[in-house]
Design brief:
This protein is α+β, with helices and mostly antiparallel strands and about 400 residues long. It is about 45% helix and about 15% strand. The longest helix is centred in the C-terminal third of the chain and has 32 residues, at about 375-409. This is SWIM-type domain-containing protein.
């Protein structure tokens, strides 16, 4: 039994009381997310690596210093419709709430695409730009896809798409068949995702729990809890090292924008409205509304280079224009709450009715279980080709040297 009454754990079984899904989340994480974090949730699944089959589904948020913030987890037998539907239902009921509007970022797994509109109708579901670009083999096309997803300017988006069409009309057609542009292109999405266009944060988390993924379910839960507690402790200590009223990551963004703002020219149109010409475009900045026509100011919640030029011209404090998510006080509040150790097993209540849960039917595959990620087809061939090429080059180079020596004599 957890001492935190807001902590939730639930086990679902299938036919014959066999294990199907175990969902859990921590009360501290839920409270912090609703109060201090940006409304963006990143989800993904990763396979268990040991003798126990299954998949860990994770929901991750991002704190004001661009750190991973674990929200909720589930261990399921397989990434299928029922598993993701169960995870989304628990996420809605115990973490984000029914009426909460947020950005849900994921890859384009069919079960996710089908389950989100059905269970989380109030969220805005968007696709990871990295996974989308991975469908194309051409490096230039990959780059243009990621730039198209990231840019906030529709004209730039059109230019990138034109570049893709010139390189490959089939790639352009395939990209347009993905669905509505607001599903993956930030320039056509009204709701801000704060510059988070990939699932890198949840991918980083999956790498951090490689050791946990080798264990049984009970051990996984215990080790992930210890991992989360270490995160809280380390980030709480980091907050004491901040030298400015905002987080380190936000400070880096402002320093960069200040440097670029020095190259901008500006003209005041009214008390709070400025016309600013930067390196790429001319924009209109409204300091009262905290907006810029480049959309970076209102999307990120951090003054862009155009807004920074106007702020510096009038002598305002740029930190006053930063969203509350990035403030030092908010970051300290995020990791202020202390974790309480779980009571020992000998103190658990015994009067509760015990559930009889059978393990899932194990499906063993032929051969030794794989623990390393499979290399792609091209990567596997490249090693073979390299050996063959090295052999051929060495053989014929020796032959050439031998013939040259004969000719010279």
């Amino acid at each position: 039994m957890s001492v935190d009454l807001d902590t939730v754990s639930d086990i679902l079984t299938g036919l014959g009381d066999r294990f199907e899904c175990f969902f859990w989340t921590y009360g501290i994480s839920v409270r912090v997310y609703k109060k201090n974090l940006r409304p963006v949730v990143i989800i993904d699944g990763t396979f268990l690596k040991g003798r126990y089959p299954g998949t860990i589904l994770s929901a991750i948020a991002v704190d004001g210093n661009n750190h991973v913030f674990p929200l909720a987890f589930a261990v399921v037998m397989k990434e299928k419709n029922d598993s993701w539907d169960c995870f989304f239902t628990k996420l809605r009921d115990h973490v984000v709430g029914v009426d909460h509007e947020f950005i849900l970022l994921s890859n384009r797994h069919k079960s996710i695409i089908q389950g989100v509109p059905k269970i989380l109708p109030n969220d805005v579901h968007m696709y990871c730009s990295y996974h989308m670009s991975g469908k194309f083999g051409h490096k230039k096309i990959k780059f243009l896809v990621q730039e198209s997803a990231k840019t906030l300017n529709q004209q730039e988006f059109g230019g990138n798409m034109l570049g893709i069409w010139l390189l490959s009309s089939k790639a352009h057609e395939k990209l347009m068949d993905v669905g509505p542009l607001e599903k993956w292109a930030s320039a056509f999405q009204d709701k801000s995702r704060f510059g988070i266009v990939t699932t890198n944060h949840v991918e980083s988390w999956n790498k951090m729990i490689i050791g946990e993924r080798m264990m049984s379910v009970t051990t996984i839960v215990s080790m992930i809890r210890d991992n989360v507690i270490r995160h809280y402790r380390d980030y709480r200590n980091d907050s004491l090292k901040f030298n400015s009223p905002i987080t380190t990551w936000c400070q880096e963004q402002i320093v960069h924008n200040v440097a670029v703002a020095r190259k901008c020219t500006l003209e005041r149109a009214s008390t709070s409205i400025w016309s600013v010409t930067g390196l790429k475009r001319s924009c209109v900045v409204d300091l009262n509304k905290r907006t810029c026509t480049c959309k970076w100011f209102q999307t990120m919640g951090i003054p862009c280079e155009h807004a920074m030029a106007a702020i510096k011209e009038v002598g305002f404090d740029p930190y006053k224009f930063v969203y509350v998510y990035y403030l030092k006080e908010t970051y300290i509040e995020t990791y202020r709450e202390e974790w309480t150790p779980t009571r020992g097993k000998e103190e658990w209540p015994t009067e509760r009715q015990r559930r009889r849960i059978l393990p899932p039917l194990k499906i063993s595959k032929a051969g030794r279980p794989k623990t390393a990620r499979k290399r792609g087809f091209v990567a596997r061939l490249s090693a073979v080709h390299f050996s063959v090429i090295r052999y051929v080059v060495t053989k014929y180079r020796l032959k050439y040297v031998f013939l040259s020596s004969i000719i010279q004599t």
